[in-house]
Amino acid sequence: MLAIGIALAATVAVAQTQPPVRIGYQKSSTLIAVLKAQGALERELAPLGVKLTWHEFTSGLPLLEALNLDNLDFSADVADTVPVFAQAAGAQLTFVAQEAPSPTAQAIVVRADSPLKSLGDLKGKKIGVAKGSGGHYLLLAALDKGGVSLKDIEVAYLTPADGRAAFEKGAIDAWVIWDPFLSAAQRQAGVRVLADGTGIASYQRYYLASTKFAQSRPEVLRVIYAALDKTGKWVKSNPREAAELLAPVWGLDVATVEQANARRSYEVRRVVPAGLGEQQRIGDAFFAEKLLPRRVDTLQAALFQPIR
After folding, report:
1. Among 8, 57, 118, 228, which lies 20 to 30 A Cα-Cα from 22?
2. At residue 2, does pLDDT exceed 80?
3. Where does residue 163 rank: exposed (0-12), middle (13-18), buried (19+ CB within 10 A)?
4. Is the pLDDT at 154 greater than 60, yes or no?
5. Are 176 and 107 a contacting pair, CB within 8 Å?
6. pLDDT score at 6
């Protein structure tokens, strides 16, 4: 027992000499937002002597760019498209966890009085979307389903906030957006869903770490994985309480948050090679449209094992 106590004390002492673990997240990073608001992750990591710093990003691409540049250690969930862009750029990233599909949590929306009724009607229109987002792939896949080429539309690359402003001013004909921004627009701006991801894009979200961090601090990632898994189950089991916690964090009303959360699976699971099939389809679709500099082999990604 004495030896175990000495070893634990030594581990904590070493951890306390380590710099803080830097976590990046975005507004749609629900589980991380809950953990941050509750201070739960700090408590879970306290036995390891780990301190945290939090860094918010407007969307997934700049988040993973920061991870690749060693400005972050761990990334909260990003849409399935984002790691593909990072891999194409040669980023040394490790998949830590995956959220099961949530296809209705992103959609192509038009104004309620818009004459656009079908995906084919998007031809010749100006469409707003965040570059590299899950919505970007939804747009490509939806156009293909509607028999419309990317060359047949005008794409406006916009952050969620800029997209909402452009949509409300009528500067774009359609907007591709994800929750909680989607739910907010539905409840506040009188939008109509032209198509969501059902049967088009499954919309899985991924948690990643820099490979250097994953190799050097696996014990930290195991604690984070377990906390995410536990929090995902809590959010789905306590929808009203979760919405009440998140509403002031997101600056949204409780009903909007609850609607957004209902469309996300929040089922945290390991990333396995067999589960990366759609990642390859996403990469191939972006490469075919010359939106990636090279073809990506998604099976070359490093995968973290949360259980020893």
Report:
1. 8
2. no
3. buried
4. yes
5. yes
6. 47
Average pLDDT, the chain: 92
Least confident of 13-27, 172-186, 253-267: 13-27
Question: How far apart, in Å, do the first and last CA atoms of the chain sit?
Answer: 23
- Residue 264 is which amino acid? R
Token pair 């082999």: residue: 297
Residue with tokens 């490469």: 287
Please, what is the angle between helix 277-288 and helix 81-88, to 10°?
60
104, 263 Cβ separation under 8 angstroms: yes
| H-helix segments, the chain | 2-16, 30-38, 40-45, 60-68, 81-88, 134-145, 160-169, 181-188, 211-216, 218-237, 239-250, 254-262, 277-288
How does strand 174-178 pair with strand 21-26? unpaired
Q: What is the pLDDT of residue 308?
A: 58
Rounded to whole angstroms, the Cα distance separating 287 from 308 reads 36
